[in-house]
Structures are given as structure tokens and as C-alpha cells.
Amino acid sequence: MLSRVLPHFIRRFAVLLLALLLGLGALGPALAQVTIFSPFNIADAMDQGVKKTADIRYREGNRGKLDIYTPEKSDGLAPVVMFIYGGAWAAGDKFEYEFVGRALAANGYVAVIADYRLFPEVRYPDFLEDCAAAAHWIEENIVNYGGDTRRFFLAGHSAGAYNAVMLGLDASFFRDQGVSMPIRAVAAISGPFNFYPFEYDQVRVIFGDAPNPEGTQPINLVAAGDPPVFLGSGTTDPIVRVENSRALAEKLRAQGVWVTEKYYEGFGHLEPIVSMGAMMRFRMPILQDMLNFFQTFGAFPSGTPRPVFIPSPPEDQMTNVIKQMDLILQPISDGRRNE
Predict the structure, then answer these.
(1) What's the rounded Cα separation, in Å, for the pair 165 and 219?
(2) Degrees, nearest 5: CA angle 138-183-37
(3) pLDDT tens-digit readout, 198-243
(4) How confident is the model at residue 84 (pLDDT cuts 50, 70, 90)?
(5) Would you say 83 and 104 are in contact if contact means Cβ atoms under 8 Å apart?
(6) By CB count within 10 A, which of 26, 143, 207, 288 is most buried?
(7) How do residues 238-292 score in pLDDT, each as one tens digit?
(8) Contacts within 8 Å (CB) and 24+ apart, 206-210
(9) What residue ranges define each of the domains in the chain, with the CATH number in brackets?
(10) What integer pLDDT is reported at residue 318 of this predicted model?
(11) What is the predicted pLDDT for the residue at 7?
């Protein structure tokens, strides 16, 4: 039954998502926060059993806030994951990635997603300093939300994967922000790790003023003793080529650093991150792969049962999401689009 029904839902979902994106400009300020990730943040599309605490300030400025996702039921302190979103260091907001925070918290983690300053307000290395400042806040405060700083992990997607890996490989960012908690492991999804010389204008203006451009590249910073790294990429990613992950893995392995590589055949750049959410999790096992990696490095101590990973039936989720998207899109179809 699923094999016959699911393709219909995927096609219908794709059509609705396209219509949603095309209609954003006509929907006005009321839906100003609707983005390409909005369908994955609808209630029926996300994991349940999670509490969200939003807009906690970790530094001054309009980009200095973070959100925390915690399991509604937890026995004792939980491991902590700081997830860093992407957007080419020029776009992105924490509210877009609620589906990621809830996915991690539903599996027993305290998840933190922080905004950080973006281009053109800042350039390298300011956004890394912001992420380190958020980690400092975590070290000082996350116990109040049920988090254990002795089990701290970093994760990120795209530019956020770069940020996470840089924090793991260059200890100066944490040191300068007064962060002393160790990083158990880093999970980097679809990340750019080797893009010098700077071929594209956007990258050139963000990184080109660095006094040592080669030092902005994770592949040049690998050293023995770095934290373990999980690298996950789609093999047909047209935005960040899979060779970025393969080259970094080779360097890590040469230095004796534990690295786990997972390559998802036929998938592109956004598919790995949206597949972390409950609605699209059937597409690839990236969340399970990442959690298995974290477990290898002590996410849940021996004797503590791991949360069970059970994706909901995709056809039920997509049915509910499509109904809700129809309601969102109603202003487009009822003649009010040009009002």
C-alpha cells in the first residue's frame, strides 16, 4: 500500500511547497516567517514529547538569542547537542530548524540552536565567535535545563557544518570565549571544508580579508587529538561537493582522528537536513547514523537505555501536513492574492 500511496504524497507535497514559495511575496507580513523549511515545522510533521524554550539571550544584539529543546520525560541529566544551521553565512534563523531541535530532543538530548551574526553585518571570524559565545552560555547555564556539559556534542549543516568543525579543530575560539567543556564529537552534514582559493564572490567577500586565508579552511587545521568527526553528505550535492567530506576524512584519518563517513547515494544538499525531521525521515537514516555515532562517544552511559528511534508512518504525516499547507495557501487560491 505504501509503495502506491507515497509517490502521490511526495508529488502533491512538492507542488504545494512550490506554490508556497511562489506565493510568499503575496501573502504579506502575516506570513513573513514562512520559509522553505516551514512545511517541516508544522506540528504534525515534527517529533512529539518535546518542550521548547525560545529566545534566550546569550549575547547582546538582535542575533544573540538561542532556543532550547528538551525531552518532556527524562531521567537525570541528558547529553547536549548544539546544532548550527547553514545559509552560506548570510542567511538562516533558528526558528527554521525547530524540526531538527525536536528530532534531537525526542531522542533524549537537550538540543540548543542559536542565531549568530551573518554577512553583510559581519565577516569571518565573527560568526564563529558568536557560536563559541553560545557554547559559553551552554556551559554556564544548560544544567538548569537538564543538560550535562560532560556530554557535549556539536552538529551542523552546510555553513553550520563548517562552523561546527572549525570549533572542533581550532581550540582558540572556545578558549577566547572562556569555554572549557570538552567536545565529545562533531557531526558535520553537507559541509564545505576545503574551498580556498576563494572562487566565488560571496565566499571571497566573507573570508577574503582573513590575514591567513589558508587558516580559514578546516582541512588545513587537522591535528592529532582533535575530537571524533561524523561526516554525512549526499553523493549528488550540487552546492557543496561531496569531495569536501572525503578530503577532510582523509586528513583526519591520517592524523589518527576517529572519523565516520556516511554517503547517501543520489541525494543532494538539503535532503540530508530535512530528512532529520519526522516527516521525511523515511528518506535516509542520517539521524540514526548521527545518533549512533554520538552513542559511540558516550552520549548515554553504559547501562542507560537509549531512546528508541521509531519514525511515524510517512503517509499519515504527509496527509496531515498537506491539509495544513492547504490552509496556509488558501489566500492564494481564494482571489485575495493581489489585495
Answers:
(1) 10
(2) 65
(3) 988 989 999 999 999 999 999 999 999 999 999 999 999 999 999 9
(4) very high
(5) yes
(6) 207
(7) 999 999 999 999 999 999 999 999 999 999 999 999 999 998 998 999 999 999 9
(8) 206/89, 206/90, 206/119, 206/123, 206/124, 207/123, 207/124, 209/123, 209/124, 210/124, 210/125
(9) 42-313 (3.40.50.1820)
(10) 59
(11) 52
Which has the closest alpha carbon to 81: 308, 304, 274, 300? 300
Is pTM, for the whole model, over 0.90? no
Query: Which residue type sits at 316?
Result: D
The arithmetic mean of pLDDT across residues 86-95, rounded, is 97
Q: CB–CB of 284/264 below 8 Å? A: yes
Helix axis angle, 159-169 relative to 126-141, nearest 10°?
70
Distance CA 177, CA 134 (A): 9
Cβ contact 167:131 at 8 Å: yes
Specify whether the CB–CB gap between 96 and 54 falls below 8 A: no
Question: What is the C-alpha separation between 257 and 249, in angstroms, rounded?
Answer: 9
